[in-house]
Design goal:
single chain; alpha+beta; 7-stranded mixed beta sheet; 10 helices; 29 strands; 17% helix; elongated
Length: 553
């Protein structure tokens, strides 16, 4: 579980003024840093202060606005972040060349040692930062640190390793990669529903396979003129599948990059990264629109829109416990219908019954309990289709406790529960779960408002024992969008301690107004498996382009 513990640290926020986005720090918000003009580095009083500043910088639309005044005072970053003018880039380049002239190039780090733009901007040109009374130096052999009075010793590293042996003078930290998620890039699933392209349900776009896209690289800027905020199609997007040149693997972590080139000088670069910088770990995705200059590729604001979207999310727990019913309403009727369902599975043991059992409006604290008849359930089992029962009842939450979170670390606004009955429900693949999610959303009975996110809880039930177990959890509606800015970024905060208290499965009889049910308490303690398709896009020159890749760990 240590691999996933690193994920649940940081909430990710973006501007509520943009479509489908969370509240973000104000564009004018001032983040104060301390710059030691004599030592030429950024300093903090404590690790907590440094981590807090890093979190604040991540939330700014353009962190470069914070650093500009320090450049004027002589600060040279390992690599600048945000939008930096070409004139400023040239000035920083020449000053760095001048300051490092005559030095052994092996004693200072390469700019790409730290993939994380914001953290690289906090380090000086030698990879150094001051925290408390110690100086920390990031190198390709790990992190070295010593008291401020011994800073000159760091300039001899990593060449003079004898200094490290004297641990009273210099400390050395090498990240344990086992503490980071060991993720991989896998092919994007064709989840098999591939529904008609004229279905224009925004929620469905997080699961539907109709706008799949092909493989390999793509250059040309797209073929469709888009609407104002969303692309009409993503079929021309670049789909990356574990390309060797997409990986950047170094001592502080690893990242995978997928690029879409609009032309020879404009591109959208999307990165998924997991990093350990000693003071904190960070797992995030970032889409950055970039322009090529003679100094390299840097952030560019020429794109009208840049977005980052989580699609086809499946979160699973490793160990499942089957929960016994907590209560019954009209127990004899409940037992009778389960006996009938058990008889059906005796004759068709490979079948599954899948239906929408509950819909939660968490903001308004109401729930809709669907009440299928035996005939409806058997029809679902025979044709393998997603059932939306004809009869339903709206109720207030009262004493119901629901804790369903999105990947922002906040409660979802609306949620669906899908009950899957059968003898082998625990063997359901992610692809089948995604198809169920798409089939449920095609019913169009749940609609998110702007800035809202939704959740889908998959629950498996053995009709013979009546016990249930959590199968998986998914979220949708998560898009980070920025306008006339270069970067859309988000940090992953995997939900934990998710629960549905007093989850009720209700049933009814055909032609009878009465209903009856069975109640449970369901919880997901720790997520063990994460499966997410990341999609990024940008609108530049009136055309859309972007990338897709799938992360699994």
């Amino acid at each position: 579980m240590k691999k996933l513990a690193a994920i649940a640290m940081i909430a990710f926020l973006m501007s509520c003024k943009e479509e489908g986005v969370k509240p973000q720090a104000s564009y004018e918000q001032e983040v104060e840093l301390k710059f030691d003009e004599k030592e030429k580095l950024i300093s903090f009083n404590s690790p907590l202060e440094m981590t807090a500043a890093y979190e604040e910088l991540k939330e700014l639309k353009d962190p470069n606005e914070v650093f500009e005044k320090y450049y004027d005072k002589g600060f040279l970053p390992l690599r600048p972040s945000g939008y930096v003018s070409e004139e400023r880039l040239e000035a920083l380049h020449y000053k760095k060349q001048e300051r490092l002239a005559g030095r052994n190039s092996k004693t200072y780090p390469k700019e790409d040692l730290i993939v994380n733009d914001v953290f690289a901007n906090l380090l000086n040109e030698e990879g150094e930062i001051q925290v408390g009374d110690k100086i920390y130096k990031y190198t390709d052999q790990g992190l070295y640190f010593t008291d401020k009075k011994n800073r000159e010793l760091l300039k001899q590293l990593p060449l003079n390793q004898r200094l490290v042996a004297n641990k009273t003078a210099i400390g050395h930290y090498v990240p344990n990669r086992a503490n980071l998620p060991e993720y991989k890039i896998v092919p994007i699933d064709d989840c098999g529903n591939g529904g008609p392209n004229d279905i224009r349900i925004e929620e469905l776009s997080y699961y539907d396979c109709g706008n799949g896209g092909g493989g390999g690289s793509y250059t040309g800027g797209g073929s469709s003129t888009a609407s104002s905020t969303t692309p009409p199609s993503t079929e021309h997007y670049n789909v990356c599948v574990n390309t060797k040149d997409g990986w950047i693997d170094n001592i502080f972590g690893k990242s995978y990059a997928c690029e879409y080139k609009f032309n020879s000088k404009k591109k959208l670069r999307t990165v998924f990264a997991a990093e350990d910088f000693y003071f904190f770990t960070d797992v995030y995705a970032q889409a950055k629109f970039k322009q090529k200059t003679w100094l390299g590729w840097f952030s560019d604001r020429d794109a009208d829109i840049v977005y980052l979207k989580n699609k086809k999310v499946v979160l699973k727990v490793k160990e499942r416990t089957f929960e016994v019913p907590l209560f019954y309403t009209k127990e004899k009727d409940v037992i009778k219908i389960y006996n009938q369902i058990t008889a059906f599975f005796t004759s068709k043991p490979k079948s599954t019954i899948q239906y929408i059992s509950n819909v939660y409006d968490i903001d308004n604290k109401t729930t809709k309990n669907y009440q299928p008849t035996f005939e409806e359930l058997i029809q679902s089992g025979n044709n393998g289709s997603m059932l939306t029962p004809a009869k339903a009842q709206n109720k207030p939450f009262l004493d119901i406790d629901v804790n369903l979170k999105n990947l922002f670390g906040q409660k979802v606004n609306k949620a669906i529960v899908i009950n899957v009955m059968g003898k082998e429900v625990v063997k359901l693949t992610n692809a089948k779960l995604l198809k169920m999610a798409a089939d449920a959303l095609k019913k169009n009975f749940i609609k998110l408002d702007k800035n809202q996110t939704g959740g889908i809880a998959f629950v498996g039930q053995d009709p013979q024992t009546k016990k249930i177990t959590p199968l998986a959890y998914s979220v949708f509606g998560e898009t980070v969008t920025v306008k006339r800015l270069a970067i859309a970024r988000r940090t992953f905060d995997i939900p934990s301690n998710t629960k549905l208290d007093k989850l009720v499965f209700a049933f009814s009889n055909k032609g009878d107004s009465r209903s009856y049910g069975i109640g449970f308490k369901v919880k997901w303690n720790v997520v063990n498996s994460v499966d997410i398709e990341i999609e990024s896009g940008a609108k530049y020159g009136g055309k859309w382009g972007g990338s897709k890749f799938k992360v699994k760990y």
